[in-house]
Amino acid sequence: MGGRARVYVDLYNLHGAPSADGWRPIGDSDPAAAELQLLRELVAQRVTLEGRVAVTVQKLRAAGASWTVIGDVLGVTRSAAQKRYGADQLL
Description:
mainly alpha; two-stranded antiparallel ribbon; elongated
C-alpha cells in the first residue's frame, strides 16, 4: 500500500449536520482518525491472512486434498473454492 489515501467522511453521520457539499476531509486530530488507522491495520491483516490461506490451499491440493474438502473448511462450495484458489487464479 502506497501513501495515505485521502478519506472523506459524511458530516451528517458524524455531527448531525452536513457541510455545504455533505463531506469533509478527515485530519489526524479528528476522532475518526483512530478508527481509520484501525481499518488500515485490519485491511493489512486481511491481505496477509488471505495470502496464508491461499498458500495453505496450494499445499493441501499438492497433498491430495479434494476441492470438496477444502470448500467445506472454507465454508464455500467445491467450485467456489476451486475458482478462488485454483492454479489459474494464483498466477
